[in-house]
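Hello again,

I reread your note about wanting to compare the complex against the isolated chains. To keep things tidy I'm splitting this into two emails, and this first one only covers the full assembly. Below are the input lines as submitted, including protein chains and any nucleic acid or small-molecule components. They are followed by the predicted structure of everything together. The single-chain runs will come separately.
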Amino acid sequence: MDEIEFSSTGSGWGPRSEVLAVGWGNSCETVRWLLPRGLLNSCPAGVASCPASSCPFPSPRSPRLTLLESVLLLGPRPTTGGMEFSELIRTGRAQAKLLRGPEAPPLRGTLCVTGHHLLLSPGPQGTSDLWLLLLRSVDSIEKRVSGDSGTITLRCKDLRVLQLDIEGVEATLDIARSIEGLRLGDAWHFHPPERYYKRVARETNAWRLSEVNEDFSLCLSYPRAVIVPRAVDDDALARCARFRQGGRFPVLSYHHAPSGTVLLRSSQPLTGPQKRRCAEDEELLRAVLAGARPGAPGFILDTRSAQAAKQARVTGGGTEAKAAYPGWKRLHRPLERGRPLQESFVRLVEACGDLEQSMDGWLSQLEACHWLAHVKEALSTACLAARGVEREEACVLVHGAEGTDSTLLVTSLAQLILDPLSRTMTGFQELVEREWIQAGHPFQLRCAHSAFSHACPKHEAPTFLLFLDCVWQLGRQFPLSLEFGEGLLLALFEHAYASPFGTFLCSSEKERCLCEVRTRTHSLWSGLNQPKVRRKLRNPLYVPNPLAIWPSVEPQSLRLWQGLFLRWIRPPEPSQVAWEKVWQRLASKEKTEGCEPTSKPQL
Amino acid sequence: MASAPTSKYNSHSLENESIKRTSRDGVNRDLSEAVPRLPGETRITDKEVIYICPFNGPIKGRVYITNYRLYLRSLETDSALILDVPLGVISRIEKMGGATSRGENSYGLDITCKDMRNLRFALKQEGHSRRDMFEILTRYAFPLAHSLPNIGILNEEKFNVDGWMVYNPVEEYRRQGLPNHHWRITFINKCYELCDTYPALLVVPYRASDDDLRRVATFRSRNRIPVLSWIHPENKTVIVRCSQPLVGMSGKRNKDDEKYLDVIRETNRQISKLTIYDARPNVNAVANKATGGGYESDDAYHNTELFFLDIHNIHVMRESLKKVKDIVYPNVEESHWLSSLESTHWLEHIKLVLTGAIQVADKVSSGKSSVLVHCSDGWDRTAQLTSLAMLMLDSFYRSIEGFEILVQKEWISFGHKFASRIGHGDKNHADADRSPIFLQFIDCVWQMSKQFPTAFEFNERFLITILDHLYSCRFGTFLYNCESAREKQKVTERTVSLWSLINSNKDKYKNPFYTKEINRVLYPVASMRHLELWVNYYIRWNPRIKQQQPNPVEQRYVELLALRDEYIQRLEELQLASSAKLSDPSTSPSGPSQMMPHVHTHF
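Full-complex prediction:
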């Protein structure tokens, strides 16, 4: 991790430094690994001279460690709602034993609670390193006391279940209360990729970059700039926006250069019971077809059933009337969303964690969760959209109701199927940034809790996780075609739910601007693109594939994503060992070649 | 091997492009001839038929029948379908429809295959057109009933490696460190007089005399006495295999058998008990007493502990596989895939076999106790358990040649009744002796190779090739029921070994990720969560599921290997050229042999 620049913001150790120091470590990496080289030199005097007595560890093993521990404990004091974190910390430390699932050995040592983290320092004779957990990743907490000791069970958003056995009833209760108070804390963040817009401009001039949403007045959930048909002016866009739910008028999602056709996304039109129409909206879609090629057909892919789309009229929504949009044909492919999807996720995690469950019944239990059925539906709908663009050479507009969930699932997956660039490490990160984060997927609401929370789900839904699962299925079916491996998908899952980086914070670009996420936090992408981290996330087998990758969507071809859902249950050994060997081989290959393998697909 | 036309779902991937490039091995492909023919293969007839493809509908084609295969080439220009089915694969031929039956394509032949597919041909209704095809197929597919020689005997293929030399029992036992102070090699069964289904060469306790062996044989079903299969190189515990004791209803005892087991126990001084694993469910073992069999009771056999492993008999396995075929061929069950898969119980049986083998391996390796394994006759479940346990314990068997030796030793030489279980050349398709026991073993090996992707030198194609030729009868390897029968038929002189085919083109069957590790014991996870249906085998005929075949990773590996060979060759040429130029001998030692390991890292 010596590549990470350990920047302190002049005024001392702000939250930014803490984020960097912990960096990648929210999945219990060790501190030794995190310790930046040269920390001693660049450390501000205030912390370096911290008195040894304030150090919570009985017998520090090295001055370096003490120093980092001090940074972690004393440094971060950001405020949430005017309340100091320190007020939430009921007790500093306790003696504890940590159980990390059936496969890992228990850890014993001193437990500490800081503003952001839970730390466990092994005793002086301890051989292992400091263990830490980002408090924000705790999904639910359960405490039990018996006699003069207590047990806290932490269920994390990344589906880990941890058990802390703590000496002393008071200490247990205090630590539990501290964690409960602190895990609500939040920090902020971002990174801008307007590169895609440039790429489209190189391929065609039928589209333009419009800054009509500069002040987010047209659409709260769109970014400042969007790509729209050149033939449509900003005034017309403003009127379109009023005709679409949440102002999400049709914008370009992907331009398929070989056929010259496009993938668009929007929200539902506000036709309402009176079947209202909007001339500008109709004109916009007409312009899309005209801009593609003469006579190009258009498909509107509604991610709701025909029935549900019709019903939406009662509440002011609806779907495009055939007569109003000549050349456009409507298709309905209902995708599950919202609460049923969340429930499916919860059931699946329950089934996976149920270790006592006898052998018979696992498969039917897995089926009853319907998770794989959702994967199948998502992938086949994306195939349909991609086929429309590639085989039928048609323009495809995707929308559901709000256009912020299943719509994005379909457009982003269709791009992975069609676009070789989106299968590269950089391309995929840009895809996530552009089609999920900037496209206004409400991460803040959808990923507030993961599968363990006892709170009644309101807006939670694992749409993004479903997307990652589908990408994993693609990677399994085309092992050479994705430049990134399972590691990146796991990292995105973890960070979407709880992250020391700001990338997944807030629900839209507007909120991110208001919260100054960009200046106050660090971008996950810069964390992931550290050379050492990046190499671990790469797929060593990658060979650029210029063709479309059409996945098989039969249930026999889809698998449970064991790496995620059984991650903390299965013995990690075989597959991890296998990948490490592959990496080793790769490393020696790079050494002999003296360069990074080429990652640019030839188009 | 059918190569169906690419479906709409899985074309256009780089991975699939490579299919066309693979060539059929060992087969003379004369371009002027319509059918590939093996040396010794003769053409019998050909006929125009309509192949009713379950995936793409009726296809007009010409079928060629030789004494080895049924070969169909489509006559339609837009479909390049080719079917290449060895006659040995055929289990049943039925006439479908009659001369007067109506409806298109209702008159013809329906062929049931042993490898999870059925073939249906429609013929013209006039003039008994199917009669001669039916008769020829019946005659050559079931030579047993027509006193015709098996095709394996007519095969005149030549390979540069002789597969019959792979397994030499003396050498294999010497590799295991035998004979030693406690175990001796005996030729008592040289003429198969002691036990006609055992090999000629056996390893028995040093302290048991040949007379003892003869007396023990009277008390074991079919005289299959306990003999050594494998010895642990360090702790010297052994895996011993045999058949059930002939206890019967009256609870007979045999002093010699009891003493013999005690002698086996005493070869290992570390543990005071000998562990007996009876592969059957407890009730079946008890029920076997009625037919004269049974199990070792506590009061007769002191110093032993007996466990039942609950693996069901050949009839249960046959029915289970039948159910698998029902849900995968021709149409795969889509709506309730997982629960229908569960209802076949196939994976459950796999799990039980693996669990049993894990217990055997663990007892020997960690429990430091010698183990005796039997079922009823000791040639089905016993072979599965001993061979899988040996695969877990001994990394030698995980190499290509090691695995061939394992199959040759534990299955072929110890009398797994291949001829009866597969029904080679036999038309009695409903024979209750048929059962997919060996297939189940290969499936278990595949499950292990999935969980330990770097532990096996061979790839999936190796396993599928073994299974294909298990049925094809092209090689003598799996012909007949036991060694004595094979010797009588002079199989090694009159037929070619499957290992000749494989070992003469080993690269094709190599796992690119193989990392040789000595002394690593593999314990696969035999939980339902970690087992999956071997889709690439059981559903390989379905073009919608059959994607990614051949495995793109292996395909790429083969390409890279070819590239490496090319470079090595060029390097040698250059070195030759330069050494010719520079006649200074001091610069020449950096020959190609030293460059090899360096080049090798570019797997």
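For quick reference: The domain at 43-148 of chain B is CATH 2.30.29.30 (PH-domain like).

B.
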